[in-house]
């Protein structure tokens, strides 16, 4: 393992983080504050940024002052180590602004207050960088804008990938930079658009930034402020889900905004290579020839039809089931009735039912996590279907989380092949995607990933039952974090948050987020002791 190259690369990423922190810190100068300059710099929400900027830049400088800057061998271990350790350190340094803010506002009291504040800050920023969108903030709208912008910016940086951005900004990472690219970009394949990896990273980030800007402009036309539009565009294109409002997208009460965000969630769940081919090469036939994209559309369409139909026929869940749903603060009978009336009004017509069903299906499948309705009050079959859809995720090469559509396709085809092999044991049957045989080694890797993903989900669910008394909440908290979605069911449902979960549980879920975003193998390879032996 080339330790020198790993330190140098992580140092470069920390320098990149320090420059990123300057953006939300600058917003502070445009916000109203009680004390004049420079006294307001001592304010907790501002002081945290100053500390984070200095520490990340100085640490980055120290790590880059090493003689060896390039790898001497082509080895996947260095790339995976850089991605895993880099994400962890970026989260630690990136959580400093929130940590100082929580300390300053007295978010926790007692002998463990500092540790609890750091845990909350780390959880929130890990949720941002991994584009999960699970939050511990109980009242988002009282948090200073500079901090809200930072948590949204962590979404945007993590969506396409911090290391991918580093490859575009610092192309001299080394000869094995592709392994870093491979370790971070979601999906079983990482195509190159150009011979130079730096050029590929620049193209992907260019498409990503262009779509983000276009969405922000459309949201402003719908009445959003510039600040809200940018933050929600960041959350949409990164499939993150952090909002600047307590009620998420439902707070804007606008069908136009719902449909704009729905459209861009759909785009964010598509492989960004396809966006490049459509925008710059005008290859419209790719929409027909790409089997993963077709599967993605079919899954979305089928889920929308089923959920819309069930909601129109059955309406909401039974009142007694809604009242029994676990919440850290139980609802009174009056509050239950009020919520039922609100949700019944949302699905009162065919048009509105389709609108809310389409939004939530896109939000769940693409792992964005925005909410316009309390889907925890929908019928049990719909809630179960939404949980199953959490595992699908977007396409490979998208910003979505989950297992990914292409892997689901391969697993289904591999399972069907086993059935055919029993019927016709002498026949050689290959797994085929788009009339091309998938390499057997890749099939084994994908089936192994699928099995490992489910095993981790089950294992972490068992652990979370030690921290959460409700079975549904414990399981869906793991599914929602390892699939990088955010909201689950019951105690972590669409209108709930993760603030009440014990400190130990938050660390478990933080690990789930990292494993889900870096897709298991990257983290496991980096953490196995054998990887560090020469």
Please explain how this structure is put together:
Helices cover 63% and strands 1% of the residues. It contains 23 helices and two strands. It has helices at residues 3-27, 44-64, 76-94, 96-105, 113-129, 145-160, 162-169, 177-184, 197-221, 226-237, 255-268, 272-279, 286-289, 291-314, 319-324, 333-346, 350-365, 380-392, 405-423, 440-464, 471-482, 503-517, 521-527; strands spanning 432-433, 436-437.
> Can you count the beta strands?
2
Distance between the termini: 6 Å
- Return the string of H and E elements: HHHHHHHHHHHHHHHHHHHEEHHHH
Backbone structural class? mainly alpha
Helix content: 55-70%
Strand content: under 5%
Spatial order of the strands forming the largest sheet: 1-2
Spatial extent as radius of gyration: 23 Å
Mean pLDDT: 87
Topology:
Elements: H1 3-27, H2 44-64, H3 76-94, H4 96-105, H5 113-129, H6 145-160, H7 162-169, H8 177-184, H9 197-221, H10 226-237, H11 255-268, H12 272-279, H13 286-289, H14 291-314, H15 319-324, H16 333-346, H17 350-365, H18 380-392, H19 405-423, E1 432-433, E2 436-437, H20 440-464, H21 471-482, H22 503-517, H23 521-527
Antiparallel strand pairs: 1-2
Helix pairs in contact: 1-2, 1-3, 1-6, 2-4, 3-5, 3-8, 3-23, 4-5, 5-6, 5-22, 6-10, 7-8, 7-9, 9-10, 9-11, 9-12, 10-11, 11-17, 14-17, 14-18, 19-20, 20-21, 20-22, 21-22
């Amino acid at each position: 393992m080339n330790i020198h190259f790993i330190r140098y690369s992580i140092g470069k990423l920390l320098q990149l983080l320090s420059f990123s922190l300057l953006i939300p810190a600058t917003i502070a100068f445009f916000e109203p504050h009680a004390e004049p300059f420079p006294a307001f710099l001592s304010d907790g929400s501002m002081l945290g940024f100053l500390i984070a900027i200095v520490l990340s830049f100085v640490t980055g400088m120290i790590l880059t002052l090493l003689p060896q800057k390039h790898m001497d061998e082509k080895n996947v271990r260095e790339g995976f180590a850089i991605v895993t350790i880099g994400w962890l350190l970026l989260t630690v340094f990136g959580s400093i602004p929130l940590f100082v803010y929580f300390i300053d506002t007295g978010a926790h009291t007692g002998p463990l207050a500092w540790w609890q504040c750091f845990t909350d800050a780390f959880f929130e920023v890990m949720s941002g960088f991994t584009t999960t969108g699970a939050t511990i903030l109980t009242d988002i709208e009282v948090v200073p804008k500079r901090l809200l912008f930072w948590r949204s910016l962590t979404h945007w940086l993590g969506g396409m990938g911090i290391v991918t951005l580093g490859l575009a900004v610092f192309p001299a990472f080394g000869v094995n930079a592709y392994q870093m690219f491979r370790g971070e970009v979601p999906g079983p394949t990482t195509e190159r658009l150009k011979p130079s990896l730096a050029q590929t990273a620049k193209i992907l980030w260019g498409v990503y930034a262009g779509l983000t800007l276009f969405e922000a402009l459309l949201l402003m036309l719908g009445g959003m402020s510039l600040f809200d539009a940018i933050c929600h565009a960041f959350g949409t294109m990164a499939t993150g889900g952090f909002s600047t409002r307590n009620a998420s997208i439902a707070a804007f009460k606008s069908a136009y905004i719902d449909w704009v965000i729905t459209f861009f969630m759909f785009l964010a769940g598509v492989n960004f290579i396809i966006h490049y081919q459509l925008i710059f090469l005008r290859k419209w036939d790719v929409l027909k020839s790409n089997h993963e994209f077709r599967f993605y559309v079919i899954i979305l369409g089928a889920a929308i039809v089923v959920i819309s139909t069930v909601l129109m026929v059955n309406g909401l869940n039974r009142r007694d089931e809604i009242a029994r749903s676990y919440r850290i603060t139980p609802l009174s009978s009056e509050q239950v009735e009020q919520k039922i009336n609100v949700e019944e009004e949302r699905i009162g017509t065919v048009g509105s039912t389709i609108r809310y069903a389409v939004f939530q299906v896109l939000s769940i499948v693409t792992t964005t996590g925005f909410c316009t309705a309390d889907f925890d009050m929908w019928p049990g079959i719909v809630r179960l279907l939404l949980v199953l859809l959490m595992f699908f995720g977007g396409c490979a090469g998208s910003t979505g989380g989950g297992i990914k559509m292409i892997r689901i396709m391969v697993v289904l085809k591999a399972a069907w092949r086993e059935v055919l092999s029993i019927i016709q044991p002498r026949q050689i049957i290959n797994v085929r995607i788009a009339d091309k045989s998938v390499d057997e080694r890749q099939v084994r890797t994908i089936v192994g990933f699928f099995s490992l993903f489910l095993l981790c989900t089950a294992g972490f669910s068992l652990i979370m039952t030690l921290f959460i008394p409700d079975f549904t909440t414990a399981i869906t908290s793991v599914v929602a974090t390892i699939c990088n979605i955010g909201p689950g069911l019951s105690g972590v449902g669409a209108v709930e948050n993760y603030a009440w979960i014990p400190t130990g549980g938050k660390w478990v879920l933080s690990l789930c987020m990292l494993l889900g975003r870096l897709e298991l193998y990257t983290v496991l390879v980096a953490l196995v002791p054998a990887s560090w032996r020469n």
